[in-house]
Amino acid sequence: MTTAPPAPTRSTAPPAARRPPTAGHRIGSLMFLSRWLQLPLYLGLIVAQMVYVWVFLKDLAHLLARLGDLDETGTMLIVLGLVDVVMVANLLLMVIVGGYETFVARVDLKDHPDEPEWLSHVNANVLKVKLATAIIGISSIHLLKAFIEISREGWVWQQTMWQVIVHFAFIVSAIALALIDRLLPKHAEAH
Fold it and tell me: In the prediction, which pLDDT does 151 show?
């Protein structure tokens, strides 16, 4: 003789999934949904990146058109301008992909052969440090161009001094961001 399984007991409390949402829950859900308001901002940065591609191609065409007329310093200034455009485009890419991944939605690139290494461990703090170091690189290019133009065009030293001061401020800021990132507890990154 087989016995029937016992009848499931019913709880008097409604299941958590069936409880009516509270005002706090609705507000929290609305706040979480508001992350999608950033999507047009990231799409706008993609348009800005296209503008930088246009600037790069225009400057490259300018370099090629003046190939026989430029001396080494003139060539170096145009090439540094090209490097500057590339570094700004890299900065835009980090903000677009890293910011979208961190603040809007996951970018599903698992097992994609071109997935950037840094994307697997990106968070707001890592993104800040990466952006700060990219800004230092861009500032370095501008500073190098300023030093070349001083010797070439007799720039005012005061302008260059201010560029050095601002560059130093970028370096101090990047070091401070990196130190803060190291000092934060590692469990805070998961939240």
Answer: 66
